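Section 3.1: Structural characterization of target chains.
Under the original work plan, the team committed to producing a structural model for every single-chain target entering the pipeline before any wet-lab resources were allocated. The record below documents one such target. The sequence was received from the expression subgroup and is listed exactly as submitted; it comprises 337 residues.
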Amino acid sequence: MSQISKTKVSTTSATNTSQADPIERNLGMDFTPSLFTHININRSAVERRAATIGKRRSVKKQHQAAWLLKAITFIDLTTLAGDDTPGKVKRLCQKAKNPVRKDILQALDVDDLNITTGAVCVYHNMITTAVASLKNTSIPVAAVSTGFPAGQTPLNIKLSEIKASVADGAKEIDIVISREKVLTGDWQAIYDEVKAYRLACKEAHLKTILATGELATLTNVAKASWVCMMAGADFIKTSTGKEPVNATLEFSLVMVRAIREYFELTGFKIGYKPAGGIQTAKQAIEYMILMKEELGNDWLTPELFRFGASSLLGDIERQLEHHLTGSYSASYRHAMS
């Protein structure tokens, strides 16, 4: 391994993130179709704007390292596989608590050596294992729910699943909306469904997954975003990670602009979570630039921005090591088994 040389990185100034007052939860509003039925998204305009993200700003050297350390705090470190075991989840939680090797952090001379990921995301059966593994930390457990990933189960079962996950200690619930209701334009049904999920969550935060790659049009993505926020969602999220097309900058641009408009109307700040396909440090910085430019520094905090990812952390750690040594170590050294 190449020798690590010391360099100073300030995480507090990485994105000039302000320390705002506690964020008031979204109370939602009455179902108001007039706020979204007129929406018609120009795909070409969205694609042109998305193509400029990452080209308008150059983040290099110490600044890049600082942005990447900040990105780690936005990660919902995730395992959603059929072969998940308690041992695998325990290892994931250990990585969430110590996402970067201590020698790298010490060499970077960062302000805060206690950097952690934003959350750990698991299936319901692994919640108690994750909660126990994260005891005495501030890292929340997020659970996917409501028939994830397809959402093709009866409403009463979906609500029972949410309540069970909250009872087991999940602080965040990632639900999936019924895509067929979007595709048939049944917006009232989407609103009623998400509102019921919000009530079932109680104090746990509700993250609504739109499955953007299955909604056919960007206009549907924008309308679904509005309906979920009206119904009380704390976050809107692109994807389950299981669709053929998951998070993209185009989907993200449409969703964060809906968040901005909702904030201007109601004063409530809604969080945003791109998920699926975000695997590289370069991609993470592009999404952070998008948030900074479209929503401002207030959104560059784990309370309002997350990445849904399983492999992103490994690449970020490799890039930080490269910043210090000028060379890359083998990727397997940063993998989680």
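Residues 33-57+122-307 form a domain with the TIM Barrel fold (CATH 3.20.20.70).
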